[in-house]
Amino acid sequence: MTTNLAYNTYTQNNIGVESPEKLIQMMYEGILRFNMQAKRSINSNDIERRTYWINRSSAVVSELINILDYNQGDISNYLSGLYSYQFRLLVEANLHNDSTKLDEVNQVFKGLLEAWKESTDVANQA
């Protein structure tokens, strides 16, 4: 039931989302926003808020894992491993109050977001 939490939250808040491509983009952006809030919470030593934001980010990553379409070939397996590793880094960031783990996750998702925007722009222009 909680595996669909991120997806349900995004779809409820964004009824006008026109495509699954836009939803993925929003999920990537959400992870980046949540991690920035978590990092601020780490810097201010606010354990409760840190946990809240990291849990939100983790829920989105978990949903990204759950919605992978393994009929798409090797890319799905690659993304599954990548997302799982990012999930583990989020857990470690929370356990050890470590903002460097959040920086690592952010770096990956910034790259994914950029690549996603480029690929969906090209697909929409074709």
Q: What structural class do you assign from the helix and strand content?
A: mainly alpha
Low-confidence stretches: none
- The helix fraction, in percent, is over 70%
Gross geometry: globular
Mean pLDDT: 90
Please provide the ordered H/E string of secondary-structure elements.
HHHHH
Number of strands: 0
Rg value? 15 Å
Quickly count the helices: 5
Say what the CATH topology is: Four Helix Bundle (Hemerythrin (Met), subunit A)
Strand content: under 5%
Overall number of domains: 1
CATH class designation = Mainly Alpha
Distance between the termini: 37 Å
CATH architecture: Up-down Bundle
The profile of the biggest β sheet is: none
CATH superfamily: Flagellar protein FliS
For this structure, the quaternary state is single chain
Give an overview in words:
This protein has 126 residues and is mainly α. It has one domain: Flagellar protein FliS (Four Helix Bundle (Hemerythrin (Met), subunit A)), CATH 1.20.120. It has 5 helices and no strands. The model has no long low-confidence stretch (mean pLDDT 90).
